[in-house]
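WARN retry 2 of 3 for item q-0093 after timeout on previous attempt; input resubmitted unchanged.
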Amino acid sequence: MVIAHRGYSKLAKENTILAFEKAILAGAKGIECDLRLTADEQVVIYHNKKIVVDNKKIKISKHSISELEDICRYSGHELLVLDELFEYVKQKQAKFFLDLKSSSPTLVESITKKIKEKNLWEQVHVTGFSFIVRNAIRAQSQHPKLQVGQFLHIPAYYAYIRKPKKSYCVFLGWLDSIPGSQKFFKTLISPKRLVKLKTFFEKNGFNVMGGVINNDSGLELFRQAGITDIVTDRVAETVKYFSEKVEA
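OK item q-0093 returned
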C-alpha cells in the first residue's frame, strides 16, 4: 500500500482535499495527514504550528477556529477542519492515517469520537511519533477498535530489547527534513537487522510499515525486508516502482 504523505503535495497544497484526491487518482491506497488543535480545542488539518500570512506567523494554538478561518479566507490559504475531512473520508475507500501533532487527550478524543460517529474504525488510523501517541494508546482500553500507529524514533529500533506499547502498527524509517537521518538509519539498521525487526514486531502483533521513503534505494531496502506499506511524497513513482516489481 502506497500512503501519500500529506496527500500528493507535488501536485496540490499539502493537507487539502485536492492533494488527497490527486494522490488517490495516482494510485495511493492510503493518505497521511496532520491534525492539531486550535485555541478553542477544535481540530484542523495542518502540519506546521504556524500559518504564514504576509510574512506574519499565525500560531494555530493561539487562535480560535473562527479567527483562523477568517484569516485563511481573506489571505487565500486553505484550512481543512475535522468535519470536512471525515465527510471526504467516508466517500472513499482509501485508508487514512491521521498524524497527531499534539499529545493532547482532547485531540485524541475529538478524533476518536468522529471515527465512532462515522463508524470508520477499519478505515481511519491514529498515528504519530511514539511519544506523542501515548494518549491514543491509552484510549484503546476504552475504544478497542481504535487503530493506533507509532512512528518509532531511533532508540526504538532496538525494540526487540523492549518492545513498544501495543498498537495496530509501527512505522520504521527516516525523515528527509532531518539532515542525515536516512544515512544514520542505514548505518544503524542493516538489511538483516531490518528483517529481524520486522519479524520481531510481527510476532508481537504489530503490522510493520515504512516511511517517509522518497527514493528507489530506500524502497528497495524495505521491499527486500518484506515491508511494502510505505509512506512517501513520491506517490506516482512509488506506485510505479511496486507495480513493476510485482510484474517482474
